[in-house]
Amino acid sequence: MNLDPFHATFGYDCYHFRPHDLAAPSRSRGTIINNRLIFGTLFVSFFFYSAYVYTVGTEAAHVPPMSDEARRGQQVFQKYNCIACHQFYGLGGYMGPDLTNVISNRGEAYAGAFIAAGTASMPNLGLSPDETSDVVSYLGFVDTTGTYPPKNYEVTWFGWVTQEDDPQ
Amino acid sequence: MIAREHDLIGLNFLRLGMLSLGVGMFFGVIGGFQFLFPDFLQELLFTKTRPIHVSMVVSWIFLAAIGGIYFYLPRQQNLKLWSPVAANIHFWVFIFTGLAILFSYLTGRFGGREYFEFPAALSVPIFFTWIMFGVNYFNTVRKEKEPWPVYYWMWGTGVVFFFITFCEAYLWLIPYFRESMVREIIVQWKSYGALTGSWNMLVYGTAIYVATRISGDKEAARSRMAFSLYFLGLFNLIFGWAHHTYLVPSQTWIRLFAYGVSMTELLILGKILWDWRGSLTEFQKNLHCNAYRFLFAADIWIFINLVLALIISVPAFNLVTHGTHVTVAHSMGSTIGINTMILLSSVFYIIREELSAEVHGVCSGQVRTGFWVSNISLAVFFVALLAAGFGRGLYDGASFQDMATQIRPFMMVFVLSGVTLMLGIWLVLWNAFRLMGMIVSSATSEEVQPEAA
Question: How sure is the predictor about B450, in pLDDT bands with cuts at 50, 70 and 90?
């Protein structure tokens, strides 16, 4: 699980400030307008940034388009709530392994067998043969979109990670 | 001090929230056992217990934060709710939607999206009641004549951004998003990051509200410092989310930018350390012993979580910790250690204000026991998750089962401390629920008498 509240850290310790830290010098009208201005600027930038992320920021030209089977497979994946136990790119539930590159690592037949029969720790969810093959082609589609976990990477001096196999 | 009838709406939200937390934790424990013993309770698969757990405990956070707002505005801030009817409708729709979501999980009907594992149609009532809540909130606080204290800003920001990011979480319904894996997953986690940021606006706003009320220092919530921290938080809400997705191939600069933004939180850490020593004597500790206790615990957890959050936001460390139980430790530390402790503080603050005579001297006893049991359990729980997470982080992709066996001892500690955590919180909830019940019944019995009396 990834519920992640530390984006909004303004609350941190605010209730600990001693009055002399906080005593507002004077509440001029200017401060109120400033607050509105800052809020407005951030609010507007949220939309610009979102628009960027929705388009150019997430372009992946090298990825072949989704096939019909993969499309159906995506629905199967959601219908059986596979994400409760599995992850893509490390995001999801942690009971089972990450499935981003399961097809290139283990092959379609192996993945299909797992899904159809289950194991001691993965339940047999009772997918029909069609559903199984659809979900396998969806996993195949996901496999083309990138590499996780990264295999060829370098850590820079400031803690950044550059990935050789990162399509970007 | 007896509550007027329409102040009860907030109390209803709070009590429903407590119920939801109590039951939700129970499903968390069942899920924990299923992690250890995959055959445990086969009738109720992990695909069901996990979303029940998540939805119910998240409901607690929302219900308690919203309940506080519905209560504090009319009762303590002299701002009559713009529409008590809308607030009541909000309450009942919440109950019925919640029941429908539970039913869909139990019968195995899933939407199958992380955190929104219920069918998408059930979001429609949430969407509409949220608009109602927002309209009600802004029309109520608009009547405030003074400049808004920071918590009105924070609550308002939480209301607005929750709405936006909730919509964003459903962009996947459009093929343009759904059919591009990278876009799909980035937009999904962008929305989740900001969504959590929004509920934190609601919760941290509550923390500041309770703290300024207890200390009696109203100006603190209007100071420049309070606003600076608020805006820094908003900045993080908007731009910091991409540290969830360092390893998803989006544009590199989005990821670098998020790294930079995440590190601004160091400023806050510095501030905490700076204020640490002198800060504790200011509260009227004894008068509000329970509220104070829980705020104090939240503060310790803020510190612990911030250190962990900063570490795992460094991409080099994130490489090892991403997709492991370290992330779970972070989210449990935040949702239980910070959010739940703050909201329990709010609950006990209300109890103390409304029931002075009855709770006189309740500084020791069951609430204190529950407080310590739950916090110590949470500490063990947290460490066990970190240990399990590092075990998983070192997994080389060979045998998943071998890795699972290796981290099993930690998972056992995790589940056992989860049980005692639940018992500790139950003890607190039981008392809080009962005491709030006393407020409610005194309010309803007052109704019998004429208003003028």
Answer: very low
Domain extent, residue B347, equals 281-441
More reliable by pLDDT, B272 or B254 = B254
**ipTM of the assembly?**
0.85
Question: Pick from B251, B147, B247, B130: which is nearest to B199 by CA?
Answer: B130
For residue B260, give every residue at least 6 positions away whose Cβ sits within 8 Å of its Cβ, in sequence order, or none: none
pLDDT < 70 positions in chain A: 1-30, 61, 152, 157-160, 163-168
DSSP element (H, E) containing A31: helix A29-54
Per-residue confidence (pLDDT) for residue A30, from 0 to 100: 61
Residue B246: its chain A contacts at CB < 8 A? 161
Q: How many domains does chain B have?
A: 1
Q: Terminus-to-terminus CA distance in chain B, angstroms? A: 13
Res. B127: pLDDT tops 60: yes
The answer to whether B57 contacts chain A (CB < 8 Å) is no
Q: What is the pLDDT of residues B304-363, one digit of tens each?
A: 888 888 888 887 788 888 888 898 898 898 899 989 999 999 999 999 888 876 665 567
Highest mean pLDDT among A10-19, A27-36, B56-65, B267-276: B56-65
Label residue A146 left, alpha or beta by phi (over 0 means left) and psi (-120 to 50 means alpha): left
**CB contact (8 A) between residue B323 and residue A94:** yes
**CB of B44 less than 8 A from some CB of A:** no
User: What are the tokens at B17?
Assistant: 């929230």
The pLDDT of residue B159 is: 96
Does residue B353 lie within any of the structural domains?
Answer: yes
pLDDT of residue A1: 31
d(CA B42, CA B55): 21
Question: How high is the pLDDT of residue B87?
Answer: 94
Residue B331 within any structural domain of the chain? yes
* Integer Cα distance of B27 and B57 in angstroms: 10
CA dihedral for B213, B216, B219, B220, sign (positive or negative): negative
Q: Which of the 8 DSSP states describes residue A154?
A: E
Non-local (6+) Cβ contacts of B374 within 8 A are: B420, B421, B424, B425, B428
Check if the beta carbon of residue A143 is closer than 8 Å to that of residue A110.
Answer: no
> Which one, of B226, B110, B113, lies nearest residue B169 by Cα?
B113
B404: its two tokens: 């699972």
C-alpha B110/C-alpha B104 separation (Å) is 7
> How many other C-beta atoms are found inside a 10 Å radius of the C-beta of residue B365?
11
Instruction: Collect all residues with Cβ–Cβ distance below 8 Å to B51 and sequence separation of at least 6.
Output: A81, A84, B105, B110, B117, B118
Local structure of A149: helix, strand or coil? coil
Instruction: Write down the pLDDT at residue B238.
Output: 83
Least reliable range by pLDDT among B24-33, B130-139, B196-205, B438-447: B438-447
State the burial class of residue B313 (Cβ atoms within 10 Å of its Cβ: 0-12, 13-18, 19+). Answer: buried
Structure tokens at B331: 């989210």
Closest partner CB to A19 (pick from B35, B220, B232): B220
Does some domain include residue B371? yes
Within 321-340 of B, beta carbons closer than 8 Å to A belong to 322-325, 327-328, 330-332, 334-335, 338-339
pLDDT-based confidence at residue B406 (cuts at 50, 70, 90): confident
CA B162 – CA B66 distance, rounded (Å): 12
The partner residue sitting opposite A7, judged by closest CB among B157, B241, B401, is B241
Residue B397 lies in a domain: yes
